[in-house]
Amino acid sequence: MTRRAALQALAASSLGAVGAVGAYGYTARHDLELTRATVPVSNLPPPLDGLRVGLITDIHRSRWVSHEDVTRAVTTLMAERPDLIVLGGDYVTWGDSNYVGASSEALAPLTAPHGVFAILGNHDNDHDMPPALARSGIEVLRDARTRVTVRDVPLDLIGIRFWTRRASDLARLTRGALPMSILLAHDPRRLTEAADLAIPLVLSGHTHGGQVVLPLVGAVAAQKFPVVAGVGHRGRTTIFVSRGVGTIYVPVRVNCPPEVAVLTLQPLA
């Protein structure tokens, strides 16, 4: 075999491998997983040991993410009966108004004893998404703090928009907050500010877990984030980053299945 023929054969086999991976990833984007994770939290009051928080994020309702995809995520989470539910943003893609209503309506069956709370992601329109979610009974926290009482113990939920990044803005929202606070931040890079402010727990999405995770290489598209998926720490601040439900840019997932998460809180040793 000549060198040219060998290179052509190698190129053909490489293209075939890429095509096979793409076909697999196109199907795998529907293989929703339920993640049950134990999350250690500093300053956790004893009555809140065992509190279960449901997390759904990065739905990206679009032509590639169907009503059935979202419904499956909602049904999966509701079967777990979490005490509290958090939605982490990006309910549509590129602010597409054609899917705002459909996305919020698919989320309407979500209920929890201590409420369902949402924040906005970088793909969400600041004007049409909040009222749509509110019509589905979901409280949207846009650079806001709210207090909930669980098992006779109060805790603060602090929700910020994706575009709220300055440490001074976050400090303003945390001023007067309880020691037991949870920051809802679409972007896990807010872990830095949260740790500086001694916020015990951050819940995030945005990374899609990398969406395409290659052997030996990892999640190429998500290397800029302090935590790509799962539990991480900075000092005594804990973060959980969800892989999310939908996809962006390309409708594939490779070695990175979509997920909904149920987080059981426990004291940080």
Please summarize what this structure is.
The chain is of the alpha/beta class and 269 residues long.
Write the layout of secondary structure elements.
Blueprint: H1 3-28, E1 33-41, E2 52-56, H2 67-78, E3 84-87, H3 100-107, E4 116-118, H4 129-135, E5 139-140, E6 144-150, E7 153-160, H5 167-174, E8 181-185, H6 191-196, E9 201-204, E10 213-214, E11 218-219, E12 230-234, E13 237-241, E14 259-267
Parallel strand pairs: 1-14, 2-3, 3-4, 4-5, 7-8, 8-9, 9-13
Antiparallel strand pairs: 2-14, 6-7, 10-11, 12-13
Helix pairs in contact: 2-3, 3-4
**Number of separate helices:** 6
> Can you tell me the overall shape?
globular
**H-E string:** HEEHEHEHEEEHEHEEEEEE
Mean pLDDT equals 92
Indicate the percent of residues in helices: 10-25%
* CATH topology value: Purple Acid Phosphatase, chain A, domain 2
Task: Provide the domain count.
Answer: 1
Give the name of the CATH superfamily: Metallo-dependent phosphatases
CATH architecture: 4-Layer Sandwich
Which blocks of ≥5 consecutive residues have pLDDT under 50?
10-18
State the strand order across the main sheet.
1-14-2-3-4-5
In terms of structural class, how would the helical and strand content be classed?
alpha/beta
Distance between the terminal alpha carbons, to the nearest Å?
A: 64 Å
**Top CATH class:** Alpha Beta
C-alpha Rg (nearest Å): 20 Å
The major β-sheet equals: 6 strands, mixed
Number of extended strands: 14
The fraction of residues in strands falls at: 25-35%
